[in-house]
Amino acid sequence: MQYSKTWLKIALIALPGLVLTAPEALAAKATHKVTKQRQGTFADGIAAVVNTDIITMKQLDSRMRAMEVSGNPVSKEEALSLLIDEHLMNSQAEQLGIRVTQERLRDVLNGIAQENGMTLEQLQQAAKQHGINWDDYVANMAEQVRMEDLRSQVVQSRVHVSEFDVKAFLAQHPTGMYPEYKKNVVSQPRYEKREVIERSFDPKAVAFQHIYIRVPEGASDEEVAAAKKKADEALAKIRRGASFASVARQYSDGAEAKNGGDLGIRMNEDWPELFMAVTKKVRDGGTTGVFKASNGFHILRVVERRGIVNEQRKVVNVRLPDPPQAQLTPREQAARHDGPVEVTDTHVRHILIRVTPVFSDAQAKAKIDDIYQKLQSGQQFADLAEKYSQDSSAPLGGDIGWVTPGQSDPAFEQAMASLQPGQVSAPVRSKFGWHILEVLDRRTEDKQASIRHDLAYETLYQEQAQHVLQDWLSQLRSQAYIDNRLTGQTNRK
């Protein structure tokens, strides 16, 4: 399972669908019938009964909405089947004692944060901003990791892919993949009929504020120019942020000046045609420019319009989003490439100081800085790695062997790629903590054959694993009491 999905999708899919455990037994051992009390309490809200637990209709609806938001819509029956399987798997994990360590969970969360370009603290803040409870999110991620560990345990003991199987597959599919794998098919546009309500506003009345700069009858050109200048000054003040009312009191020659230029509200037909024409494209709260009439210069502010909202219902065809196009990984692209695929591996060793709930990022950074100073003073890398590194490679002097591009943490890999053999990096932060790296050597080889071999193995492994998991889930269902209220089917163990 990859944990590089966006945290939001993971949260949306997983949080709403947790199966609630009933506070008392729902079924008698002999008959598995729901008690009278629970029938009366939950009769209209139960989607399914699984052994002694229930799945509510609310949980089912939440899961369906979450799947739709994540781009994977399913039917109600399919969503309920998923919830039933998750419950059965959870019970199995409990029986097998599968647990997720805090260290493992921390690495997963750090990985999700890094994939989204965040620190763990930023991921926590982002969850809060989206209304997602962080403790619930962490608990849910722990459950997802636990379920993946359970699936891995089931599969590993039942799946076997031989070298003969791999060679036979490569003889038919030289790239190590089926020809149709991630082949993008151009689909026809999909449409859905939806009822929409179109609303339109028919204004019937409008309220204005007014600034009037009077031009006397028979005024000279100089008087007209002075009046225009006064109107322009008033408009400039308004546009610099002064209130229309204060400017009207200061500049307007109109009778309404003392009231801030308020003309009140009237029906459209009761206003001068000139007023209606110049304000036709002015939004509510907006102000016109200076305009001239026979009696002088004017500025209007549209206070508000009132009218009738017309609604019309109609059915329209809405185009649905196209399905996402599959993208080949660099390794898959290399497998399909014609000709040799040269890959440069790096022999590297490192020192790791982990960030934990009890050892903060700042503390880990201070520790790695101290180790870096020891390196600069001449102490040996291998000795410091063996003494301080918190990685399993510490007994080997930090040597993790040959690393192929794409195998390691992106930040780790970027730092590694920037070094020449014999060079040591400054401290580097990855999802695991703080590192110091030393590149020991590099080699370049044609790895197309090994890439194709690995892809063929993975393809066959996944095929077998899918069948194994389906058979295993079928066995779990056959051994459980399941009362599916949607289909009306009951399985009594």
From TrEMBL:
Gene name of this polypeptide: surA
Protein name, as recorded: Chaperone SurA
Domain free text: The PPIase activity resides only in the second parvulin domain. The N-terminal region and the C-terminal tail are necessary and sufficient for the chaperone activity of SurA. The PPIase activity is dispensable for SurA to function as a chaperone. The N-terminal region and the C-terminal tail are also required for porin recognition.
Residues annotated as domain PpiC: 203-304, 343-441
Subcellular location: Periplasm
PANTHER family (UniProt xref): CHAPERONE SURA (PTHR47637)
Keywords, in A-Z order: Chaperone, Isomerase, Periplasm, Repeat, Rotamase, Signal
Alphabetized Gene3D superfamilies for the sequence: 3.10.50.40, Porin chaperone SurA, peptide-binding domain
Pfam families linked to this entry: Rotamase, SurA_N
Molecular function terms, GO-annotated: peptide binding; peptidyl-prolyl cis-trans isomerase activity; unfolded protein binding
